[in-house]
């Protein structure tokens, strides 16, 4: 499953769920609030900008936003909301593609760094973020914590969400540190289901921190969510803020 095949025209048309899921105000508004704060009056770059779920409201807050996006159908959906003048986008992958200019903030939300399926590509993504940032610039990643504690020996899958009309489960390949997410969506009769799948390489927080160090970042903060809740051993996900050193800053 390559990313171009996953994020095709059909996926792009079904991606937006206004007012619910990842588009729910209680999910989206704290995300935009925190990113606007971290941009600190400067320009922001979103890797894998998609249909503009975050970029459009962030730009409406007065933050100049540029994007990088691999999927042309996803970009096509973004263009129904904002033109190239409002939110310029470079077509390409987040590990290597260069956007013009310098930024105070690069961000990568909703587990998307795990769409890069090798450690080398994920490390390259950190280096690419660093290339776009000025001194003191920040790279923000939102990512889930692998649920291996829920995976007993001999079992390869976990159900991570179940509700009327929908089941989400993950199958793990712990040798390669890979997960395939399976999304079963049932029709109104409950007898027919559509299956969507997406592959990921999961990353432990400590591994993510090492990737950041290799690219010259230090961990500035880590919270369990965008509102600043404490990150604990039980947190299912985290928002991690990495920062480049400023001129004259010592190392710690």
Automatic annotation (TrEMBL):
<dbReference type="GO" id="GO:0008168">
    <property type="term" value="F:methyltransferase activity"/>
</dbReference>
<keyword id="KW-0489">Methyltransferase</keyword>
<feature type="domain" description="Methyltransferase">
    <location>
        <begin position="45"/>
        <end position="137"/>
    </location>
</feature>
<dbReference type="InterPro" id="IPR029063">
    <property type="entry name" value="SAM-dependent_MTases_sf"/>
</dbReference>
<dbReference type="Pfam" id="PF13649">
    <property type="entry name" value="Methyltransf_25"/>
</dbReference>
<keyword id="KW-0808">Transferase</keyword>
<protein>
    <submittedName>
        <fullName>Class I SAM-dependent methyltransferase</fullName>
    </submittedName>
</protein>
<dbReference type="InterPro" id="IPR041698">
    <property type="entry name" value="Methyltransf_25"/>
</dbReference>
<dbReference type="GO" id="GO:0032259">
    <property type="term" value="P:methylation"/>
</dbReference>
